[in-house]
Amino acid sequence: MSDIIVSQLWIYPLKSMRGISLDSVQLEKRGFQYDRRWMLIDENNRFITQRQHPKMTLIEPSFEKGIADYGLSVRAPDMPVLIIPYPDQQIELYDEVEVTCWDDQVKAHHINTAIDNWFSEFLGVDCQLVYMPDDSIRPVDPDYVLDKEKDIASFSDGFPNLVISEASLADLNNRVDIDLSMNRFRPNIVISGCEAYAEDQLGHFKIAAIDFYAVKPCSRCVITTVNPENGEKESREPLQTLALFRKKQNKVFFGQNLLHKLTYLSDNRLNIGDKVEIVEPGEAIEFD
Predict the structure, then answer these.
(1) CA quadruple 189, 195, 196, 197: dihedral, nearest 10
(2) Are 188 and 35 in contact (CB under 8 A)?
(3) Domain count, the chain
(4) Residue-number span of the structural domain to which 212 is assigned
(5) Engineering a disulfide at 15: which of 28, 39, 143, 209 sits with its beta carbon 3.0 to 4.6 angstroms away?
(6) What average pLDDT does the segment 111-123 reach?
(7) Residues 123, 221: one domain?
(8) pLDDT tens digit string along 23-74?
(9) Torsion-angle region of 255 (φ positive above 0: left; ψ -120 to 50: alpha; else: beta)
(10) Nearest to 21 by CA among 50, 56, 59, 62
């Protein structure tokens, strides 16, 4: 695995909505800059995702100007363009709320009801948009933590980053009768130049002098059965096929969750084309 490179970089500013493909991205303590810093919650302040509302995959954020000065532009079919301000610039204007993301109680900021109404109208459900401020701390799963003081996450499903190889997706596509795009699986880092499922054994590796650790294979859910082009569940794939050869303890896996250690020797920025250097390979994963 000596010629592995970074081929794609993705962030998902709005949890469970469309991602943004980037050529270069800043890595921060909790993951890629702006990744999953915004999230929708229900009337009980609990997070909502494509699991309940597949139409969320049709909501598309973009950076049209500098985000710190302008914010996110958000589009959805038959809806006016929505501008979401970047809250850390006017933090005193927003109400603090405690929200639930999986089993975690997390400090967040509610932005405003006009933004809530936009999402509620499109999804047909009452919801609110919240933002995770810089001083909100959400620890990663303690069973996999490397440094309990430094390993934190945003509103992701549990870890700062996710890696998948192009070869793994190609292999899976050869096994199913539908065309699966990478954005069904919502990785942050996509790699090429390796064999299928090489990410299972990345172990400890470096990109741009930053240490990464593949700590846990990513268990997949019904979100992967949603067609990202139309927001509809069209079949039981890819879960049905993954269960045939990527199943363990009644879960199916695709991709690797990552932890990382920032370095003070560089600017902690990743770019497409960066080389992946294996420091210590991980052990092979045995599936049922």
Answers:
(1) -70
(2) yes
(3) 2
(4) 5-25+148-280
(5) 39
(6) 96
(7) no
(8) 999 999 999 999 999 999 999 999 999 999 999 999 999 987 666 567 899 9
(9) left
(10) 62
CA-to-CA distance for 159 and 250, rounded, in angstroms? Answer: 21
Q: Are residues 107 and 166 in the same domain?
A: no
- Is the CB of residue 256 less than 8 Å from the CB of residue 216? yes
Residue 23 CB-density burial (10 A; 0-12 exposed, 13-18 middle, 19+ buried): exposed
Is 227 in the same domain as 162? yes
Q: How far is Cα 60 from Cα 122, in angstroms, rounded to an integer?
A: 12
Cβ neighbours, 10 Å, residue 31: 25
Average predicted confidence (pLDDT) for the chain: 94
In a shared domain, residues 15 and 158: yes
CATH number at residue 201: 2.40.33.20
Query: pLDDT class for 150, splitting at 50, 70, 90?
Result: confident
